[in-house]
Specification:
Nucleotidyltransferase, domain 5; 10 strands; 14 helices; five-stranded mixed beta sheet; 43% helix
Length: 278
């Protein structure tokens, strides 16, 4: 049996391949920036159905955010291996998952708009990255954490329209927000959680303007950086890209970029890729 895993900062999709059968599981997001080997192990054990397969799995292919260096990959690999002791574990960056799952047989630019954001150029074999990922404090343009930070900032400044702010059921006092951002772990996922409100009011002019501006910033920084980018399709994965596809298309058009595939989750493409490699 093989496990294919796509992990973002918020959640991880796991698919167990057993012949022609597929079994799906979900855990919290497992980023080496925010997790240790022990917390990776604990997250897997918490899903009892997934944990029950530990002695049956022979191969695991894990694609995750933050897994771009040997040290970061080792945190995930060791944590997963501590549960699935009989399995060979391969760990790769989520950009590879993005590139593989959107690939159409020709070189393209592939982008992630999830809790964080990133982009790469993929020729069918190699992933080429030009702009570094700076995380939610300094970068992640167009991501859930980016828009969440903008939304919360506008909320505390009193700039969010009343019909939107009145719909928020959680505590968004200045004291609570600052505590969650500066004193609690995983501030990026906390900020991204406000995308639920953004999605709820997706058609509101205030939200539309915020999304359009953020997408334009992403395309300017993370797409226009590639030489002759106008000659290649630009693919996207992520629920934000999927829901606000029209704004994404407009942002691409502004910079003469060709919008390609827009898919919500790469896991189906990853499963297809690994089935073809059998």
């Amino acid at each position: 049996m093989r496990l294919i895993v796509d992990s973002g900062s918020t959640k991880s999709d796991w698919v167990l391949l057993n012949g022609n059968e597929e079994h799906h599981f979900e855990t919290m997001g497992l980023s080496p920036y925010f997790h240790t080997e022990e917390s990776v192990k604990a997250a897997i054990i918490k899903n009892s159905d997934l944990y029950a397969t530990r002695n049956e799995v022979s191969e695991i292919f894990f694609y995750g955010t933050g897994c771009s260096s040997d040290g970061m990959r080792a945190i995930i690999r060791n944590g997963v291996k501590s549960v699935f002791e009989k399995a060979e574990v391969e760990v790769d960056h989520d950009l590879m998952a993005c590139a593989v799952s959107t690939y159409e047989g020709e070189p393209a630019i592939s982008c992630i708009l999830g809790t964080g954001s990133n982009s790469c150029f993929f020729d069918g074999n190699d992933v080429i990255k030009v702009v570094p990922s700076l995380g939610y404090v300094l970068g992640d343009e167009g991501s859930g954490a980016y828009f969440g930070k903008q939304f919360v900032q506008a909320l505390l400044y009193g700039q969010v329209p009343k019909e939107i702010s009145d719909s928020i059921a959680v505590d968004v006092s200045k004291e609570e927000v600052l505590r969650r951002v500066y004193k609690e772990p995983n501030a990026n996922t906390y900020l991204a959680s406000f995308m639920k409100v953004v999605f709820q009011f997706a058609d509101h002019p205030f939200i539309q303007q915020m999304i359009s501006s953020g997408f334009e910033e992403f395309v300017r920084i993370h797409v226009c950086c590639y030489e002759n980018y106008q000659n290649y399709k630009v693919h996207f994965i992520g629920s934000i890209a999927k829901l606000f596809r029209d704004q994404l298309d407009q942002a691409c058009r502004k910079y003469n970029a060709q919008l390609g595939n827009v898919i919500q989750k790469p896991i189906d493409g990853l499963v297809r890729y690994h089935l073809e490699r059998v």
